[in-house]
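Key idea: predict the complex, not the pieces.
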Amino acid sequence: MKPKPSLRRWGVAIAATTATAVGTGAFIQAVHADPPPPTIEICCVDADVHGADLVSEHGEHVTLTNTGTDTVSVGGFYLVDAASNRLDIGSGYVIPPGGELRVYTGPGTNATTRYYNGRTSNVLNNDGDTLWLYTADDDLVHQYEYTGTW
Ligand SMILES: [Ca+2]
Ligand SMILES: [Ca+2]
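Result:
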């Protein structure tokens, strides 16, 4: 049995609204909802690149995209797979609207749209895996499942 990471989901806030008529006016009280989850999704997984999957610069990687209209800070976000392997995202990374960030398992030169974990063993199973994306505060952002490409 592979241990599953805990699926802590974003709380769904119930906006309770009470209206009290006072004379001719009315007061509306609303409970503030939790902030919405970040608009970051796991777009695609390149688990089996041409040749060795940990080749420098161009190895196996996960691509994250920002589907929203605001830049999102993703420093400290991390990915976990079904075997509890973890891929981190370095501090200070942001993804602008419509932009993407590639998170590599192996070594390479970090750049604005590429972050390398410098690991020495494969994480992304070539025959399929499930990935969970978490914020730095361990809140689940997105789940992504893929199968082998053959
Ligand atoms: Ca792989
Ligand atoms: Ca390969």
